[in-house]
Amino acid sequence: MTVLAIAAAFFVTSFLLQYAIWRIRLPQRQIRALLILYLVTPVVIVIVARALGYSVGLSSSEMVRVWVLYLPVSLAYFALYAAIELSSPTLLIISYLSATKGAGCGAAELLEHFNKKVELRYRFELMEQSGLIKMTGDLVEILPSGRVYGNIFESMSRVFGLQKGG
Amino acid sequence: MTPEWLITVSPIAGTAVNVFLQITLVHSTRRIGLSILAGFLGGLVAALIVATLNLPPGSSPIEAIAVWVFAILSYFGFAYLYWVFINLNITSLRIRTLRDLLHHEGGVSLSQILAQYSLEEMLHRRLERLEHGKQISCTDGKYRLVSSKLMILHHTLGVLRAVILPPSLRNS
């Protein structure tokens, strides 16, 4: 139970700090800021607790267990954050069809709605802010960190036999 | 490895089983959805078996539940990350763009990228996936919502957006 409580305390503290920071000044590169915040916060908590003489009496395997729980849950939150940050085109379609209340709509109408709601340029701007690409006027160039991700997903598609998506 | 450490690594062992099963099944059956589901369930069972078999003798029900909650939550975190990893390859516009850019040393014009991958094609791919997944149907040229699962997800993300994002970002 102590492992669960500590991991929960780490996550809740990181989340509350994120909530406050995001309202004071929104970071330029949000996912990177989340990574740093959620990694640094628990380390600071542990250092401060030790400095104040607190000890929870966990064994070394239990201390690792806290991180085995905290890290994937935090990373899963970052993945979810990307979906929260920007509405997915698929969910925009679902939302529009739901609003027709069973009457449905044709492809042309859907395309018109899609054209209004899906801003491809904004997605490129986000990628530029994240340091994955550089845009100079109309020219788009991939940066080294973008190349790393691109190669990872190229390799993955071969392992899983997936066609290029989008 | 002591039983305590085996409990600690049980979610990781489950994830390894998940990945192995998923890759094996996708190559043998060519059914990505089935492979993801089977991998997820197989990994979950593996994680719980490893955690349960290594519970200290005489553990109280509370201690056993705490271990299972740890194994399940950690495994779900790993499994969700793995699913996102696969799903991004299938659906992400940004990943597709990065993969396209890999083959263009010196860059490419944005108008060329948009010409290669138009909004119309993007919409068509998504409608195909939604029909294949029985989320929507097309009758007499009209698309209709068949399943409410994605709508629930849409509303949930909307609530999370309202809570987490500052007001200036919510409508982007």
Give an overview in words.
The complex is a heterodimer of chains A (166) and B (172). Chain A has 166 residues and is mainly alpha-helical. Chain A has two domains: 2-85; 89-159, no CATH class. Chain A contains seven helices and three strands. Chain A has helices at residues 2-24, 30-51, 60-85, 89-99, 107-117, 120-129, 144-160; strands spanning 105-106, 133-136, 139-142. In chain A, strands 2-3 form a two-stranded antiparallel ribbon. In chain A, a hairpin with a 2-residue loop joins strand 2 (133-136) and strand 3. In chain A, helix 1 (2-24) packs across helix 2, helix 2 packs antiparallel against helix 3 and helix 4 (89-99) crosses helix 5. The longest helix of chain A is centred in the middle third of the chain and has 26 residues, at 60-85. The mean pLDDT of chain A is 86. Chain B is mainly alpha-helical and 172 residues long. Chain B has two domains: 4-91 and 148-169, no CATH class; 93-132, no CATH class. Chain B has helices spanning 3-29, 32-53, 61-91, 93-102, 110-116, 119-132, 149-164, and strands at 108-109, 136-139, 142-145. Chain B has a two-stranded antiparallel sheet with strand order 2-3. In chain B, helix 1 runs parallel beside helix 3. The longest helix of chain B is centred in the middle third of the chain and has 31 residues, at 61-91. Chain B is elongated. Chains A and B meet through helix 1, helix 3, helix 4, strand 1 and helix 5 of A and helix 1, helix 3, helix 4, strand 1 and helix 5 of B. Strand 1 of chain A pairs antiparallel with strand 3 (142-145) of chain B.
